[in-house]
Specification:
By secondary structure, the chain is mainly β. The protein has one domain: Nucleic acid-binding proteins (OB fold (Dihydrolipoamide Acetyltransferase, E2P), Beta Barrel), CATH 2.40.50.140. The chain is 12% helix and 41% strand. It contains one helix and seven strands. A hairpin with a 5-residue loop joins strand 2 and strand 3. The longest helix has 13 residues. The N and C termini lie close together (8 Å). 26% of the residues are buried.
């Protein structure tokens, strides 16, 4: 997981299959057993994230997930960060789109 992570929305996931990315979205709920999370991405699409071990700590309403994009466009999560109960996903989505159009101005994030 070392190296830069591209910030993406759901529509960008196919271009990043097999790569590590950063996705921010609204937490729609953790599945039974704490191994999956349903997420509404910044472009208002739904996706599934998979954890390697059960989530013990509760996640906030908005989260950042860093992980590897699977062939089914799900995310194998390496790291999850709570962003609190209020977050402007529309503004964030604008930044994600701009960063894709202008990569020299918005370099990928390193974690």
């Amino acid at each position: 997981m070392d190296g830069p992570k591209t910030r993406v929305n759901f529509s960008m996931l196919p271009k990043h299959a097999g790569q590590y990315v950063c996705v921010v979205g609204k937490n729609l709920g953790v599945g039974p057993g704490g191994m999956t999370l349903s997420l509404e991405t910044s472009d208002q699409q739904k996706m599934t994230a998979h954890f390697s071990k059960p989530q013990k700590d509760p996640l906030s309403a908005y989260v950042e997930l860093v992980g590897k994009v699977g062939p089914d466009l799900s995310l194998q999560v390496e790291r999850a960060v709570s962003f609190g109960s209020e977050f402007d996903l529309d503004a964030y989505n604008e930044v994600v789109q701009l960063s894709a159009q202008l990569p020299a101005i918005f370099p990928s994030s390193s974690y």
